[in-house]
Specification:
With 234 residues, this protein is an alpha/beta fold. The chain has 8 helices and 7 strands, in the order H-H-H-E-H-E-H-H-E-H-E-H-E-E-E. It has a 7-stranded mixed beta sheet with strand order 3-2-4-5-1-6-7.
Length: 234
């Protein structure tokens, strides 16, 4: 679908709309996207920008990656794009989600370039039993270089019968190191970030309802207003 203006001009329109209507920028971006025939900005940008494609090349086997952003800023699409890139390289790719159904996940995959074709090769796991133990059992025997995305970090220990978040991430870090599997966790950012005037979130902005040492992650990727930054952590 052809846009009425280049991406950068649409972003400027959204920023102006956010100021004039006193609404959050992500809402303004979505409104502009709807004027262009898309249901959300994330869908528009996924078809007309390629910010996610270099991500996989910057990850090493055994990395534990944090993908963090406020709602509506593309963290789930980035995780799905990472899986599509893995499939393109003939790697095993698995999406563990406690948030979406299989149909909802496929809908998001199909919004990405080549998602209709490559998305069918991504394994989608939606069990309520998803936890560190479940993930490790499911990926037992998976080849080195396999990529798995977990959606999302903050609800891994929501059920009281599951181990603490700290215990689970510690176990998954050891598992990733031993197997060479890349594990990426989609994560929420605390809403206080939006009041601080920073262009991108940082580790201290990650929302942690339960204790977790974020240095367990080897890399972190932060997104906001279509900006993206990958950095080393532990």
């Amino acid at each position: 679908m052809k846009l009425s203006a280049p991406i950068y001009q649409l972003k400027r329109r959204a920023k102006l709309l956010a100021r004039t209507d006193t609404i959050p920028l992500h809402q303004a971006l979505d409104r502009i996207a709807q004027e262009e025939g898309f249901t959300a900005w994330s869908l528009l940008s996924s078809q007309h920008e390629s910010t996610a494609s270099p991500m996989l090349s910057q990850l090493a086997d055994g990395d534990l990656l944090l993908i963090a952003a406020r709602p509506g800023h593309g963290k789930t699409l980035l995780g799905l794009q990472l899986l599509l890139d893995a499939v393109r390289q003939a790697r095993r790719a698995t999406f563990f989600t406690l948030e979406y159904t299989e149909a909802q996940t496929l809908q998001r995959l199909h919004a990405l370039p080549e998602g209709h074709v490559l998305g069918e090769k991504i394994e989608i796991v939606t069990s309520d039993e998803i936890s560190a133990d479940y993930i490790m059992r499911h990926l037992a025997g998976a080849p080195k270089g396999t990529v798995a995305v977990i959606d999302y970090l903050q609800i891994l220990d929501q059920q009281r019968i599951k181990p603490s978040l700290s215990e689970q991430v510690t176990a998954l870090r050891s598992f990733a190191r031993e197997t060479g599997i890349v594990l990426a966790f989609i994560s929420q950012i605390d809403r206080s970030f939006e009041a601080d005037g920073k262009s991108l979130p940082r580790l201290q902005d990650v929302r942690l309802p339960n204790q977790l040492d974020l240095r367990l992650f080897t890399k972190a990727c932060f997104l906001h207003d279509r900006e993206i930054q990958l950095q080393r952590v532990g």
